[in-house]
C-alpha cells in the first residue's frame, strides 16, 4: 500500500456532456487500483453532476476554491459548508492561478485553509515559486513564507489534516516538469519546515507535486521519498492519461 493521492484539477474546463464521457472512460480502470486515493475537482457548477457520477466509485470529489467566510453578502462566492453539503472531500486553496490572476495573498489563503478545515473539508494548500523567483534563488524563501502563513494560522495539526501541493509556477501547463530531483528537494524542504513544529505530523502530511505531470513522468516523480502523489491539471482531462498517472501512484 503506497498510500499515495492523485487529485485532478479540471480548472475551467468541462461541460455536462464532456464530464459524463470523461468519467465513463476513467472510472472502470480506476476501479481496479489499490493503494491510491483519487479525487477530481470540477468547476463549481458541475459539482452536483460529478458527485452523482462518482457515487460508489471510490473516487472523491473536490472543489477548486472557496470563500473564507461561512456565508453572507459575497456575490459570486462559495462557502465551505456549501461544498461539504455537495459531497466534497477536498478543496484546493491558493492555487497559483488564484494567487496570480485573482490577487490571493498568503494571508487570505491561510484564512481559506482554516475555513475549509472548520467545515470538515480537506484543504489542499498549493505553493510554488515563479520562474523569476527560482532564477534569483528565492525558491526556498517563497515556499517557506507560503507554508508559514498557513502554519501560523492553523498550526501543524491543521496542516497535517489537509494536504500540501508543491506546484512550481514555471511548470504549470507549460510541458516543462520539475525533474524528480528538483521536486524532491523542495518537498524535503517543506517536510523539514513542518518538522520544526512536529516531526511526526510532518511525516504524516501528504505532499503532492503538480506541474506538467503526465503518464510518462509520473512514476519517476512518485518514486521520490517525499512525493506522496500528484495534483494534475491538463492530463486529468484525458481519461487514459489520468488513469495511467493513477496507476503509477498505485504501484
Ligand atoms: O492544479 C494543477 C496544476 O496547476 C498543474 O497543471 P498542469 O498539470 O496542467 O501543469
Automatic annotation (TrEMBL):
<dbReference type="Pfam" id="PF00121">
    <property type="entry name" value="TIM"/>
</dbReference>
<feature type="active site" description="Electrophile">
    <location>
        <position position="95"/>
    </location>
</feature>
<dbReference type="InterPro" id="IPR013785">
    <property type="entry name" value="Aldolase_TIM"/>
</dbReference>
<dbReference type="GO" id="GO:0005829">
    <property type="term" value="C:cytosol"/>
</dbReference>
<keyword id="KW-0312">Gluconeogenesis</keyword>
<feature type="binding site">
    <location>
        <position position="173"/>
    </location>
    <ligand>
        <name>substrate</name>
    </ligand>
</feature>
<dbReference type="InterPro" id="IPR022896">
    <property type="entry name" value="TrioseP_Isoase_bac/euk"/>
</dbReference>
<comment type="pathway">
    <text>Carbohydrate degradation; glycolysis; D-glyceraldehyde 3-phosphate from glycerone phosphate: step 1/1.</text>
</comment>
<keyword id="KW-0413">Isomerase</keyword>
<feature type="binding site">
    <location>
        <begin position="233"/>
        <end position="234"/>
    </location>
    <ligand>
        <name>substrate</name>
    </ligand>
</feature>
<protein>
    <recommendedName>
        <fullName>Triosephosphate isomerase</fullName>
        <ecNumber>5.3.1.1</ecNumber>
    </recommendedName>
</protein>
<comment type="function">
    <text>Involved in the gluconeogenesis. Catalyzes stereospecifically the conversion of dihydroxyacetone phosphate (DHAP) to D-glyceraldehyde-3-phosphate (G3P).</text>
</comment>
<feature type="binding site">
    <location>
        <begin position="9"/>
        <end position="11"/>
    </location>
    <ligand>
        <name>substrate</name>
    </ligand>
</feature>
<dbReference type="GO" id="GO:0019563">
    <property type="term" value="P:glycerol catabolic process"/>
</dbReference>
<keyword id="KW-0324">Glycolysis</keyword>
<dbReference type="InterPro" id="IPR035990">
    <property type="entry name" value="TIM_sf"/>
</dbReference>
<dbReference type="InterPro" id="IPR020861">
    <property type="entry name" value="Triosephosphate_isomerase_AS"/>
</dbReference>
<dbReference type="GO" id="GO:0046166">
    <property type="term" value="P:glyceraldehyde-3-phosphate biosynthetic process"/>
</dbReference>
<feature type="active site" description="Proton acceptor">
    <location>
        <position position="167"/>
    </location>
</feature>
<dbReference type="GO" id="GO:0004807">
    <property type="term" value="F:triose-phosphate isomerase activity"/>
</dbReference>
<dbReference type="GO" id="GO:0006094">
    <property type="term" value="P:gluconeogenesis"/>
</dbReference>
<comment type="subunit">
    <text>Homodimer.</text>
</comment>
<feature type="binding site">
    <location>
        <position position="212"/>
    </location>
    <ligand>
        <name>substrate</name>
    </ligand>
</feature>
<comment type="similarity">
    <text>Belongs to the triosephosphate isomerase family.</text>
</comment>
<keyword id="KW-0963">Cytoplasm</keyword>
<dbReference type="GO" id="GO:0006096">
    <property type="term" value="P:glycolytic process"/>
</dbReference>
<dbReference type="InterPro" id="IPR000652">
    <property type="entry name" value="Triosephosphate_isomerase"/>
</dbReference>
<comment type="pathway">
    <text>Carbohydrate biosynthesis; gluconeogenesis.</text>
</comment>
Amino acid at each position: 500500500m503506497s498510500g499515495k493521492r492523485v487529485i485532478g484539477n479540471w480548472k475551467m474546463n468541462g461541460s455536462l456532456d464532456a464530464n459524463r464521457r470523461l468519467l465513463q472512460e476513467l472510472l472502470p480502470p480506476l476501479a481496479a487500483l489499490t493503494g491510491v486515493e483519487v479525487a477530481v475537482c470540477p468547476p463549481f457548477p458541475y459539482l452536483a453532476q460529478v458527485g452523482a457520477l462518482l457515487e460508489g466509485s471510490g473516487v472523491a470529489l473536490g472543489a477548486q476554491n472557496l470563500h473564507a467566510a461561512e456565508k453572507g453578502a459575497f456575490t459570486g462566492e462559495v462557502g465551505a459548508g456549501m461544498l461539504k453539503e455537495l459531497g466534497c472531500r477536498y478543496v484546493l486553496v491558493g492555487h497559483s492561478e488564484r494567487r496570480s490572476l485573482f490577487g490571493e495573498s498568503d494571508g487570505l489563503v491561510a484564512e481559506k485553509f482554516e475555513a475549509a478545515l472548520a467545515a470538515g473539508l480537506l484543504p489542499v494548500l498549493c505553493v510554488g515559486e515563479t520562474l523569476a523567483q527560482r532564477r534569483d534563488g528565492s525558491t526556498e524563501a517563497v515556499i517557506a513564507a507560503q507554508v508559514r502563513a498557513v502554519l501560523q494560522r492553523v498550526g501543524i495539526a491543521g496542516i497535517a489534516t489537509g494536504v500540501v501541493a508543491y506546484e512550481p509556477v514555471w511548470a504549470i501547463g507549460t510541458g516543462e516538469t520539475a525533474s524528480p530531483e528538483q521536486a524532491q528537494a523542495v518537498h524535503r524542504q517543506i517536510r523539514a519546515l513542518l518538522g520544526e513544529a512536529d516531526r511526526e505530523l510532518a511525516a504524516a502530511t501528504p505532499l503532492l507535486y503538480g506541474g506538467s505531470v503526465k503518464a510518462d513522468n509520473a512514476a519517476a516523480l512518485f518514486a521520490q521519498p517525499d512525493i506522496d502523489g500528484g495534483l494534475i491539471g491538463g492530463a486529468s482531462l484525458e481519461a487514459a492519461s489520468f488513469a495511467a498517472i493513477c496507476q503509477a501512484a498505485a504501484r
